[in-house]
Write a structure and sequence with these properties.
232 residues; BirA Bifunctional Protein, domain 2; 8-stranded mixed sheet; 3-stranded mixed sheet; 3 helices; 22% helix
Length: 232
């Protein structure tokens, strides 16, 4: 089967969460069957909270928005207008079949995209996501990562704060982290439009992920179900 080029989809209007996850599952199945190309889907959601597989009940402080249970790893996080969500559906069998590398590549993707706005994003040992120094010098999280890999096809992805209402995070303990805050490009004093961020994300993605490779996993039967849980 010849490899089909990766496709990009960008939605300007907010997409309902349940509609998005249903479409993502359908596309992942098609990628796995070889009937559709890989996809990176950039979108926004209406205000809502998502609860990953490691969510603790006490971390939901005020259910002011709908709460959706999700198959991705991690705990509670917020999605809403002003935040760019990137759902990434890749065939890891053609990209080295290395889940740890995939998660690190997602981090690198965000770091390089932020660098285009002169923002230094960093990893932190033991904490998934991308961190920056706020205008007050305090460390804060600007991007979350939460993924699932099913039979070598990836689901879910990343969420980068452009200019969301950060007060909406007060209804939860974001990703179970109580002693550090969240921030956004706007809170850092960076004026960036969503289309500008999309351009940065596309360019950085090409740098990090490039073209898929034929791996040994292509010639052997993959596991029936691989679930990688990563805290958002």
């Amino acid at each position: 089967m010849a490899f089909q080029a990766l496709e990009w989809r960008i939605d300007d209007a907010p997409v309902d969460y349940e509609d998005a996850t249903a479409a993502m599952d359908e596309r992942a199945a098609a990628i796995r069957a070889g009937t559709a190309p890989e996809l990176v889907w950039l979108l926004e959601h209406p205000p809502l909270y998502t609860a990953g597989t490691s969510t603790k009940p006490g971390d939901l402080l005020d259910a002011r928005f709908p709460v959706f249970r999700t198959g991705r790893g991690g705990q509670l996080t917020y999605h809403g207008p002003g935040q760019r969500v990137g759902y990434v559906m890749l065939d890891l069998k053609r990209r080295g079949a290395d889940i740890r590398r995939y998660v690190r590549d997602l981090e690198e993707w965000l770091i390089r995209a932020l660098a285009r706005f002169n923002v230094r994003g960093e990893r932190r040992e033991g904490r998934v996501g991308i961190w920056v120094a706020g205008r007050d010098g305090a460390e804060a999280k600007i991007a979350a990562i939460g993924v699932r890999v099913r039979r070598w096809v990836t689901l879910h992805g990343v969420a980068l704060n452009i200019d969301p209402d950060l007060s909406h995070y007060s209804g939860i303990v974001p990703c179970g982290i109580r002693d550090r805050g969240v921030t956004s490009l706007a809170a850092l004093g960076i004026t960036a439009t969503m289309p500008e961020v999309d351009v940065a994300l596309r360019a950085a993605f090409d740098e990090v992920f490039g073209s898929p490779i034929l791996s040994e996993a292509d010639r052997t039967e993959g596991s029936d179900e691989i679930l990688r849980q990563v805290r958002p």
